[in-house]
Amino acid sequence: MTVSTNAGEFEVQTRDELEALLRKSALNPYDDIWIGGEERYPCLAILVNGDQACIHYFLNDSGDMWQSAGDQEGDVLFAVHGEPPNPMPGSCVISLDKAVKCASQYFETRERPDCIDWNEL
Predict the structure, then answer these.
(1) How far is residue 120 CA from its own chain's centroid?
(2) Phi and psi for 57 in degrees, rounded to 5?
(3) Does the N-terminal or the C-terminal CB of the chain have fewer CB atoms within 10 Å?
(4) What predicted TM-score, i.e. pTM, was given to this entire model?
């Protein structure tokens, strides 16, 4: 599975490698992580700020996409690769631990994880 972060592109072979890469990326002030396979879609995109994350699942390029449903108070800053940080509402922010669990499930199924609630966009 291919994982792109602000530090570059990586190939991971196991869920443990994926989790380690995600947790290492979370040590950066911000990271924009994309997880995919041989095809461009589906893919999972994770914005990380420390122990907080916002996930987007893209089924295809026709607009079928979902955003994590969260329960954080207030806005949380996230930055897309190379851009200044922007606030995201806490209603789409989940914990890093939940994001890692979602990425692990996606690694196994290549489908939208069912371990969190989603908002269709």
Answers:
(1) 16
(2) -115, 125
(3) C
(4) 0.94
- Which amino acid is it at 98? K
Give SS3 for 85.
coil
> Hey, which residues does 69 pair with through a beta bridge?
none
Residue-wise pLDDT for 63-102, tens only, equals 999 999 998 889 999 998 878 999 999 999 999 999 999 9
Q: Are 36 and 85 in contact (CB under 8 A)?
A: no
Per-residue tokens: 51: 């122990």
List of residues 6+ apart from 70 with CB closer than 8 A? 54, 90, 91, 92, 93, 94
Q: How far apart are CA 55 and CA 100, in angstroms?
A: 10
Residue with the two structure tokens 């631990």 = 97
